[in-house]
């Protein structure tokens, strides 16, 4: 497919459904070949991309397993020969329940940090060698706008996404000599299917909208412009940055 990302290869984690699927589809529409991974078989996302004339493969991968990630990278290389874009979307959120800091269990805290923070680092570590072989690339980490305002009753999640901002800044410096730009997107609460089907998030949606300058629900399509910008050559001189896409709750 032709487009801004023609001849590029993108890896998107956590893309079997929801916002991750929207990311993968938009990258394909922009011309990229897409390697889609998730802990479940992402057959529907692969089929959706092929339906619009794009190229995609699906890989079952656990971002907290180095062996699993190595298989994902190998599959990508075997199918497409390179990796130019990595979208670190896989994270725990939809299944989490709101609760005060003193009711969180240590196991739940560790589970969120393992996937959301350690998994992002492990994925970068696995993909960067192939990206270097390809001459450089773009890494896009997914944080959350809630980091910049604080949200009660979600301490483990908010903390994990704050760590993604710090990780983005630090690894951007480490990879700068490899022609790899590392940036992050921080969406507000998005009315995805998982959010709409979750009692905790539907209860707070109206109060979130009330704090926005643009007073409506956020949908996955609202984030796609930022995604393609960070994936493209338009941001070749931008690294270590976090772009908030939340309808104007956070302004800085």
Can you tell me about this structure?
With 252 residues, this protein is of the alpha/beta class. It has a single domain (9-189, 219-245), classed as NAD(P)-binding Rossmann-like Domain (Rossmann fold, 3-Layer(aba) Sandwich), CATH 3.40.50.720. It has eight helices and seven strands, in the order βαβαβαβαβαβαααβ. The longest helix has 28 residues, at 106-133.
Topology at a glance:
Layout: E1 9-13, H1 18-29, E2 33-38, H2 43-51, E3 56-60, H3 66-80, E4 85-88, H4 106-133, E5 137-142, H5 155-174, E6 180-187, H6 193-196, H7 199-210, H8 224-231, E7 242-245
Parallel strand pairs: 1-2, 1-4, 2-3, 4-5, 5-6, 6-7
Helix pairs in contact: 1-8, 3-4, 4-5
CATH architectural name = 3-Layer(aba) Sandwich
Apparent shape: globular
Order of helices and strands: EHEHEHEHEHEHHHE
Could you state the CATH homologous superfamily?
Answer: NAD(P)-binding Rossmann-like Domain
Total of DSSP H or I helical runs spanning 4+ residues: 8
The end-to-end distance, rounded to whole angstroms, is: 37 Å
The class by helix and strand makeup works out as alpha/beta
In percent, how much strand structure appears in the residues? 15-25%
The helix content, as a percent range, equals: 40-55%
Any idea of the CATH topology? Rossmann fold
Total strand segments: 7
> What value does the average pLDDT take?
93
Segments where pLDDT lies below 50 for 5+ residues?
none
The CATH class: Alpha Beta
Domain module count? 1
Largest sheet: 7 strands, parallel
Using only CA atoms, what is the Rg?
A: 17 Å
Question: Strand order across the biggest sheet?
Answer: 3-2-1-4-5-6-7
């Amino acid at each position: 497919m032709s487009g801004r990302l023609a001849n590029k290869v993108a890896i998107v984690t956590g893309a079997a459904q929801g916002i991750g699927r929207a990311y993968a589809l938009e990258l394909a529409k922009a011309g990229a070949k897409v390697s889609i991974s998730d802990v479940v078989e992402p057959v529907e996302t692969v089929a959706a991309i092929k339906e619009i004339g794009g190229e995609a493969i699906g890989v079952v991968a656990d971002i907290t397993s180095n062996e699993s990630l190595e298989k994902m990278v190998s599959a990508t290389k075997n199918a497409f020969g390179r990796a130019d874009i990595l979208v670190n979307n896989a994270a725990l959120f939809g299944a989490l329940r709101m609760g005060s800091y003193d009711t969180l269990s240590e196991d739940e805290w560790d589970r969120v940090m393992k996937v959301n923070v350690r998994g992002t680092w492990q994925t970068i570590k696995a993909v960067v060698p192939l990206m270097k072989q390809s001459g450089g690339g773009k890494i896009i980490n997914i944080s959350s706008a809630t980091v910049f305002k604080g949200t009660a009753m979600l301490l483990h999640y908010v903390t994990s996404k704050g760590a993604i901002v710090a990780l983005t800044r630090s690894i951007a410096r480490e990879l700068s000599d490899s022609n790899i730009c590392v940036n992050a997107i921080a969406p507000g609460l998005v009315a995805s299917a998982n959010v709409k089907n979750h009692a905790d998030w539907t209860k707070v949606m109206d109060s979130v909208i009330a704090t926005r300058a643009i007073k409506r629900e956020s949908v996955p399509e609202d984030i796609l412009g930022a995604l393609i910008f960070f994936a493209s050559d338009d941001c070749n001189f931008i690294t270590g940055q976090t772009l908030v896409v939340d309808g104007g709750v956070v302004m800085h």
